[in-house]
Design a protein that fits this description.
Elements (H helix, E strand, L loop, with lengths): L14 E11 L3 E10 L2 E6 L7 E5 L3 E7 L11 E6 L4 E5 L8 H11 L27 H7 L7 E4 L15 E4 L4 H8 L9 E5 L6 E4 L13 H12 L6 E5 L4 H5 L6 H16 L13 E5 L5 H15 L8 H8 L1 H20 L4 E4 L6 H13 L6 H14 L4 H5 L14 H15 L8 H13 L10 H6 L2 H4 L3 H6 L31 H4 L13 H27 L5 H5 L8 H5 L7
Parallel strand pairs: 11-14, 12-13, 12-14
Antiparallel strand pairs: 1-2, 1-7, 2-3, 3-4, 5-6, 6-7, 8-9, 10-11
């Protein structure tokens, strides 16, 4: 086989097949070239276009492979393959119709794009990449809790879940009220969906208000009560003397939705039914009669199925062609930015309540989708540590990976079942919310947009182990940390690539983004990045000049240090003797050197 020009294979990556093919480019038309398939990627390079058109698609980003046309199909380029990707693009390839020319490439692509469906390993287990940094050491639960000032006289660390016996989707180390015994935890576990009891995610150092997360209570249609659960929530409230514990239920409320003038009766039924459906299946919410020292607030964030359909509509209007003539109405009809607004607005309410000294409990149905969005965004607003490069990694490891967001089910790593109803872009939506915050507070985050795009690319790629499996128990069973590489190994080996040059550390600043449709934008450089006709947002001249000035400053500092060293040598001792005693040393000046922006 010919070498993969312009494409270096990763350590552990092996070439499987290459084939002459026609890429039906939605922007440039039919392009003849060669496609290479490895156990990690699909790579295409055109033969006759100038400049050459290339595609480099991780197989993990492929969600669906279908045959296009048949042996008797008529029309040019009507026989080939249709590939639907998870990263907002679709690919179409045409082949010659004679001799079942697509059978071999279809079989190989289907096999390696969906390895788990064929008894094969994900590429992360085959990769031989080595990095200077070990990304698996980024998050150490006890270190993170100590950073927050835990444990203390109100909150204790428990290892009751060390063997995943209390809750198989929770991490092994949990923080719970000091007065709650292990037996209390077991009793509460029976009344919370999936055994996901309320546990501490974050504590405010000054006012000691806490963010706790959990799943819905199992009250059912009959309105069952559980005295242990009611007392446990009261212990959370009492820990910092909160008058009334606020429980944020991420789901749409029955009453609020019923009172809205809905445009569609079907949509009305779908939204109103969510909490009632939960009740019918044993779930529900905390009623006023049972939880008298708590107030319940519904945040009206819709479920995974609504979000999946919303992103699908967004893809329809941005790929392959942007709907120019009715762009604003088309974008509005997807409801994507409306959902982003609701998630950010909910997180603002959580952060504001904590800043006011009131503890909160956050849940949705099972506590691993909308709950993770709300707790992590609120913590990002409240705690500047999570706005640093390494702090953001800790936040993702803790609130998403550790607390069991179902990455395997939501993304479908290596699984051919593209129509699975568990698929949903919940994590993509969260990263979009983070991007919206970075746009509103351009100096508050140490990381740049490139980090966010890299995270989403490798959410799908299966190159790293970071986002594989649904929970820590599954990762332990599959020896993830010893057999795969962490995404943070890549990121932390070249931190400057992901740094925001405008970053200004502010330790006690709480960020309150504006959750208004007028202030939210479509993330063009992610959702429409595959369209060459949409001018990619280049680095701004101001940012470029700022980076140049920083480089110039570093150069001058280096020269100054060299002069200091030369001045301290024996040959220059007479110079130092002649200096005035009160003169400021070069080192003193260095501490004040900075480039203001």
């Amino acid at each position: 086989m010919e070498p993969l020009a312009d494409c270096s294979l990763l350590p552990g990556e092996e070439r499987i097949i290459d084939k002459d093919i026609i890429y039906i480019c939605p922007f440039s038309g039919a392009l003849k070239g060669k496609v290479f398939i490895t156990n990690y990627r699909l790579y295409f390079k055109s033969a006759d276009a100038d400049p050459a058109v290339t595609l480099d698609v991780p197989l993990g980003a492929i969600g669906r492979v279908e045959k296009m046309g048949g042996a008797s199909s008529r029309g040019e380029n009507s026989y080939g393959l249709d590939i639907t990707c998870k990263d907002m693009r679709n690919l179409r390839f045409a082949l010659k119709q004679e001799g079942h020319s697509r059978r071999d490439i279809f079989d190989i692509l289907f096999k390696y794009a969906f390895p788990l469906s064929h008894g094969l390993l994900l590429f992360a287990y085959l990769s031989q990449e080595k990095f200077e940094e070990n990304g698996w050491s980024v998050y150490k639960p006890m270190e993170e809790f100590r950073r927050q000032g835990l444990p203390n006289d109100k909150w204790r660390v428990t290892f009751i879940n060390a063997n995943y016996e209390l809750c198989d989707t929770y991490p092994t180390i949990l923080v719970v009220p000091f007065k709650a015994t292990e037996e209390d935890l077991r009793k509460v576990c029976t009344f919370r969906s999936r055994g996901r009891i309320p546990v501490l995610s974050w504590i405010h150092r000054e006012n000691q208000a806490v963010i706790c997360r959990c799943s819905q209570p199992l009250v059912g249609m009959s309105g069952k009560r559980n005295k242990d659960d009611e007392r446990y929530l009261d212990l959370i409230r009492e820990a910092n003397g909160t008058a009334k514990l606020t429980i944020y239920d991420a789901r749409p409320s029955v009453n609020a939705v019923a009172n809205k003038a809905l445009a569609s009766c079907l949509l009305h039924c779908m939204l109103v039914s969510e909490v009632r459906t939960e009740e019918a299946t044993g779930g529900g919410y905390e009623g006023d009669d049972a939880y008298q020292n708590a107030e319940l607030v519904f945040l009206d964030i819709h479920n995974i199925h609504v979000m999946r359909e919303s992103l699908k509509k967004l893809k329809d209007i941005v790929y392959p062609n942007v709907e120019e003539s009715h762009w604003l109405s088309s974008l509005e009809s997807t409801h994507w930015l409306e959902h982003i607004k609701l998630v950010i607005s909910g997180a603002i309410q959580v952060a504001d309540k904590i800043s006011g000294g009131n503890s909160v409990v956050v849940h949705c149905s099972d506590g691993w989708d909308r709950t993770a969005q709300l707790t992590s965004l609120a913590m990002l607003m409240l705690d500047s540590h999570y706005r640093t490069l390494r702090g953001f990694q800790v936040l993702l490891e803790k609130e998403w990976i550790g607390f069991g967001h179902k990455f395997a089910n939501r993304i479908g790593h290596g699984d051919k079942n593209h129509a699975d109803q568990d698929r949903s872009p919940i994590f993509v939506q969260f990263i979009d919310c983070v991007w919206q915050m970075t746009k509103q507070f351009p100096t508050a985050f140490e990381f740049n947009e490139r980090l966010l795009v890299t995270i989403l690319d490798h959410l799908f790629s299966c190159r790293f182990g970071t986002f594989l499996y649904n929970c820590e128990r599954a990762r332990d069973t599959n020896e993830l940390r010893s057999k795969t590489v962490s995404l943070w190994s890549l990121v932390n080996s070249d931190l400057s690539f992901y740094q925001n040059p405008f970053y200004t550390p502010e330790s006690n600043r709480v960020l309150y983004p504006v959750a208004s449709m007028r202030h939210l934008e479509l993330w063009v450089t992610y959702y429409i990045r595959w369209n060459p006709r949409i001018r990619q947002q280049q680095q701004s001249p101001v940012e470029q000049r700022y980076i140049e000035l920083l480089a110039l400053r570093d150069e001058y500092l280096k020269k100054l240090e060299e002069l200091q060293l030369s001045d301290s040598s024996p040959n220059s001792s007479h110079l130092s003797n002649s200096s005035t005693p009160n003169a400021a040393s070069p080192t003193q000046h260095i501490t004040h050197l900075h480039t203001p922006f």
